Amino acid sequence: DAGVTQSPTHLIKTRGQQVTLRCSPKSGHDTVSWYQQALGQGPQFIFQYYEEEERQRGNFPDRFSGHQFPNYSSELNVNALLLGDSALYLCASSLAIAGGPRQETQYFGPGTRLLVL
Amino acid sequence: AQSVTQLGSHVSVSEGALVLLRCNYSSSVPPYLFWYVQYPNQGLQLLLKYTSAATLVKGINGFEAEFKKSETSFHLTKPSAHMSDAAEYFCAVSDRGGAQKLVFGQGTRLTINP
What we know:
Strand content of chain A: over 45%
Radius of gyration of chain B: 14 Å
Largest sheet of chain A: 7 strands, mixed
Order of helices and strands of chain A: EEEEEEEEEEE
Largest sheet of chain B: 6 strands, mixed
Distance between the termini of chain A: 37 Å
Oligomer: heterodimer
Number of helices of chain A: 0
Strand content of chain B: over 45%
Number of strands of chain A: 11
Helix content of chain A: under 10%
Structural class of chain A: mainly beta
Largest interface: A-B, 27 and 23 residues
Number of strands of chain B: 11
Shape of chain B: globular
Structural class of chain B: mainly beta
Number of helices of chain B: 0
């Protein structure tokens, strides 16, 4: 049973560039959440996608956007990168309860480490 | 708004000693509570979760946590530490409805001394 996978594992970008991170959920899961974990901090919720729509959003600017595909995989896009965007980006998948939007437990992928220079 | 406070950013214990990692939460609604573990350069692995059944929750690797509503706490314990327990531990809270986003604490780094 494949768990949550993310690509790439590491990425280096320069300020002002754009980046796309990818996530494939655990088999059978239909919901994807994205978190940002700065060095030495706990993860911070960015947003959650369910039924190809953004269902909830954390306190992140519009530079952060996402998408969910019909196969439930998801992308996180960040535009106009800032040095402060350097972090580990974690994807978590879960299964909606009885048609949603409530979720079962979230399972995390290994993350994508982004460095902005 | 929900929040989590983990008391002690670093905890060090000897191998075989009791592990106690503290977590206090704030929530205006009955919460779901979680403990996750993060090993170096890896994602988060679920240790255990409380979802309103038994207040004493048993997880993987010999860990357990007790939900105490009166103290708004959900401390993580393990009777006997093993070297492999060295990692970062995160307590998280979510509400019971909606999209159930997780709100994490700052984390506690656990070091095991031989």
